[in-house]
Amino acid sequence: MKRITLKTGLLFALLVAFGTVAVNAQSKGERREPPTYAKLLEEMDADEDGQLSKEEVKGPLKDNFSEIDTNEDGFISKEEFDEAPKPKGRPRN
């Protein structure tokens, strides 16, 4: 009888421990910081001219390009990027 109780207790403790690790990993994944302008240049500046054109960007930057490119020169500068409204995160459950 003691063996069954001990095994059941150990199994329960392991399940709780693994469940806690999984929950922590999931919650950390939801809190990513938005990319910096330097990171976007690194990822999207295909011609490596130090500027982001409409042809190079994707996602919300492409969708809102005309609103972000306030001086209408066809590129998003660091200043324009910094002043652009930031996308809202996912709603929390």
From TrEMBL:
Signal peptide coordinates: 1-25
Key word Cell inner membrane present: no
Sorted UniProt keywords: Signal
Domain EF-hand, first and last residues per copy: 56-91
Coiled-coil spans in chain: none
Domain of life from the UniProt record: Bacteria
Region (Disordered): 45-93
Record keyword Lipoprotein present: no
Biased composition (Basic and acidic residues): 51-65, 75-86
InterPro entries cross-referenced by the UniProt entry: EF-hand-dom_pair, EF_Hand_1_Ca_BS, EF_hand_dom
Gene3D superfamilies for the chain: EF-hand
UniProt GO molecular function: calcium ion binding
Name of protein: EF hand
Native source organism of the sequence: Maribacter dokdonensis
